[in-house]
């Protein structure tokens, strides 16, 4: 029997560590497929930190580094400057990336560091009980906002992709969603373009992925996928916000 669909070679044969319906696993697979297709397995270093992302260290066969909360862009910067031939990416949640780690993220983007950051935006702190994150939507109920986020005292959610695009003009910046096949295929294109931007030395690259958290949202997996369409994308529109590379030929050149 011929296999037509299989695990990426850059990923270990282990069970998923995530809750039912969580789309972290899809994001991991897209990164693994991109590494395989770009042929950079032996040169790749992934960086993770506290939160749901920490579980990914055992999913990949290439080198993985665990950092302090919020510090992956700083560690990635050091690794890339010391080992410029490596493909270095950080994999972070929105709480980690947009809260405690926002300084490291924005300054890496300002300096045009030749690294890649993948940020999973599920609008909550999924690993610690569903508390509000900087990305929590107005009116969204969380354990820390039981009556919903009120912008009068909690402020408005932050649109990280647009922020980076506005301060780092030479970067590749995109926002994608992981809630249906069409969006997942577009997400893979963005992952590949981000890594190609780094490979060609063109600048910083950042991909924000809207991801489902059924447990933190107190929804069924199917309802959580619908909620991405009905609520999250209204606040966080999909698309590419800065594209120094991204021509069809450049993906395979």
Structure description:
With 253 residues, the protein is α/β, with parallel strands linked by helices. The protein has a single domain (24-244), classed as Thiamin diphosphate (ThDP)-binding fold, Pyr/PP domains (Rossmann fold), CATH 3.40.50. It has nine helices and nine strands. The strands form two sheets. Strands 2-1-3-4-8-7-9 form a seven-stranded mixed sheet, with helices on both faces. The protein has a two-stranded antiparallel ribbon with strand order 5-6. The two termini are 33 Å apart. Residues 246-253 have low confidence and may be disordered.
Helix/strand layout:
Blueprint: H1 24-38, E1 44-48, E2 63-66, H2 72-82, E3 87-93, H3 94-100, H4 102-110, E4 116-121, E5 124-125, E6 131-132, H5 151-154, H6 160-167, E7 172-177, H7 181-199, E8 205-210, H8 214-217, H9 221-235, E9 239-242
Parallel strand pairs: 1-2, 1-3, 3-4, 4-8, 7-8
Antiparallel strand pairs: 5-6, 7-9
């Amino acid at each position: 029997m011929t296999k037509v669909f299989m695990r990426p070679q850059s990923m270990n044969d282990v069970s998923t560590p995530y809750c039912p319906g969580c789309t972290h696993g899809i994001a991991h697979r897209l990164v693994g497929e991109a590494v395989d297709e770009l042929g950079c397995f032996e040169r790749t270093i992934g960086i993770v930190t506290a939160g749901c992302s920490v579980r990914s260290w055992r999913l990949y066969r290439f080198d993985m580094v665990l950092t302090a909360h919020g510090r992956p862009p700083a560690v990635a910067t050091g690794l890339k400057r010391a080992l410029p031939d490596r493909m270095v990416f950080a994999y972070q949640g929105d709480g980690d990336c947009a809260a405690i780690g926002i300084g490291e993220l924005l300054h890496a983007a300002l300096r045009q560091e030749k690294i890649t950051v993948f940020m999973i935006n599920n609008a909550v702190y999924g690993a610690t009980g569903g508390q509000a994150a900087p990305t929590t939507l107005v009116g969204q109920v969380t354990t820390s906002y039981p009556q919903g986020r009120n912008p009068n005292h909690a402020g408005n959610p932050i649109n990280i992709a647009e922020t980076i695009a506005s301060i780092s003009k030479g970067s590749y910046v995109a926002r994608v969603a992981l809630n249906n096949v069409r969006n997942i295929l577009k997400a893979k294109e963005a992952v590949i373009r981000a890594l190609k931007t780094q490979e060609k030395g063109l600048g910083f690259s950042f991909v924000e992925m809207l991801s489902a958290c059924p447990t933190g949202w107190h929804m069924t997996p199917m309802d959580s996928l619908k909620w991405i369409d009905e609520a999250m994308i209204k606040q966080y529109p999909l698309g590419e916000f800065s594209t120094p590379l991204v021509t069809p030929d450049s993906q395979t050149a």
